[in-house]
Design goal:
The protein is of the alpha+beta class. The protein has helices spanning 15-25, 38-43, 80-85, 87-92, 94-101, 106-111, 114-118, 131-136, 165-172, 271-277, 284-295, 308-324, and strands at 8-10, 29-32, 51-54, 64-66, 72-75, 175-180, 183-188, 208-214, 220-227, 238-246, 253-261, 268-269. Among the domains are: 61-119 and 160-214, Uridine Diphospho-n-acetylenolpyruvylglucosamine Reductase, domain 3 (2-Layer Sandwich), CATH 3.30.465.10; 220-324, CO dehydrogenase flavoprotein, C-terminal domain (Enolase-like, domain 1, 2-Layer Sandwich), CATH 3.30.390.50. The chain is built from twelve helices and twelve strands. The chain has a five-stranded antiparallel sheet. α10 (271-277) runs antiparallel to α11 (284-295) and α11 packs antiparallel against α12.
């Protein structure tokens, strides 16, 4: 049986207190909300904080609010279940609703939070194992070792970003709210993630993700599709988030974004694919061109499930699948 290591448990009364506690303890401390990622990692000794700062109860991390400029603010502590069921998310941001509905299982969706999924630890076949298994291969670069076993010559860790919500937020053009001792700052979701399996978030470790800002709908349509071995529970081995805006009902595509998940250490936006869609009607021909453009830069590594060549081909097929969902309904 895997057991949690000993740690000190802090229950702050405010965001400011939570940030202060985390800052005072530095790298020896971790924030936790739903705990569906941190606690299993602690049991496997992948993460070993001496202090855990609970934030799920903080009021400033809860709630849905429409801003004056039309943006939707979602508290980072909202559960995936509540995000999935929220009427304005279902209506205006269907890709996000689809993504959270595909995370793990309903039980974990009831516990896990939107902020936790955005900041999900990167994953790898050589990292997500028990301590004894990792010790047998002399550990890996991400924890306790010096070698990336995915590509032993790599100077950086190649663990993948397996968040379902991360590529969606990038495709939607969302922003995240980060709190620190000096106040709150806003960062585009596209700039939150780094191409490094170890240092994978572009935020100060003491900063707390407090909220997500989704842009005003303004005619954008979106979708998300996910590839995994089983129909539930599993992390993605590929995720495709697509969003686009037309020049009027049934008009040409004015703007588009295609973002791939689980093929790199950060969500991979493919502007070449978006460019093939803009300035023309969304059709089977333009969808096929976009899928080919997305296929070219996708370079899956040996760090998740399935064969590399098959996973790469699935990029093409799943981009097609995601974009077909955005075709206007047939009369």
């Amino acid at each position: 049986m895997l057991r949690l290591p000993a740690f000190r448990y802090h229950v702050p009364s405010s965001v400011a207190e939570a940030v202060r506690i985390k800052s005072d303890h530095g790298p020896r401390a971790s924030y936790v909300s739903g705990g569906t990622d941190l606690f299993p990692n602690m049991k496997r000794r992948q993460q070993e904080p001496e202090d855990v700062v609970q934030v799920s109860h903080l009021r400033d991390l809860l709630g849905f609010r429409r801003e004056e400029d039309g943006r939707l603010r979602i508290g980072a502590g909202e559960t995936l279940t509540d995000v999935r069921r929220r009427p304005e998310v279902l209506r205006d941001y269907p890709a996000l609703s689809d993504a959270v509905a595909l995370v793990a299982t309903p039980l974990l969706q009831n516990m896990g939070t939107i902020g936790g999924n955005v900041c999900l630890d990167t994953r790898c076949n050589y990292y997500d194992q028990s301590y004894e298994w990792r010790a047998a291969i002399d550990f890996c670069m991400k924890k306790d070792g010096d070698t990336c076993w995915v590509a032993p010559g790599s100077p950086v860790c190649l663990a993948v970003n397996s968040s379902d919500t991360a590529p969606v937020l990038v495709a939607l053009g969302a922003e995240v709210l980060l709190s620190r001792r000096s106040g709150e700052r806003t960062l585009p979701a596209a700039k939150l993630f780094k191409k490094d399996g170890i240092d994978y978030l572009a935020k100060d470790p003491n900063e707390l993700l407090t909220g997500i800002l989704l842009p005003k709908p303004d005619g954008w349509a979106s979708s998300y599709v996910k590839l995994r071995r089983r129909g539930t529970y599993d992390f993605p081995v590929l995720g495709v988030a697509a969003s686009l805006r037309r020049d009027g009902p049934g008009g040409d595509v004015a703007e588009a974004r295609i973002v791939l998940g689980a093929v790199a250490s950060s969500p991979l936006e493919v502007p070449e694919a978006a460019e093939t869609l803009t300035g023309r009607p969304l059709s089977e021909e333009s969808i096929a061109a976009a899928a080919h453009a997305a296929w070219r830069p996708a370079k899956p590594m040996d760090n998740t499930d399935f064969l590399l060549s098959w996973r790469k081909e699935m990029v093409r097929q799943f981009v097609i699948k995601a974009l077909r969902r955005l075709l206007p309904p047939r009369p």
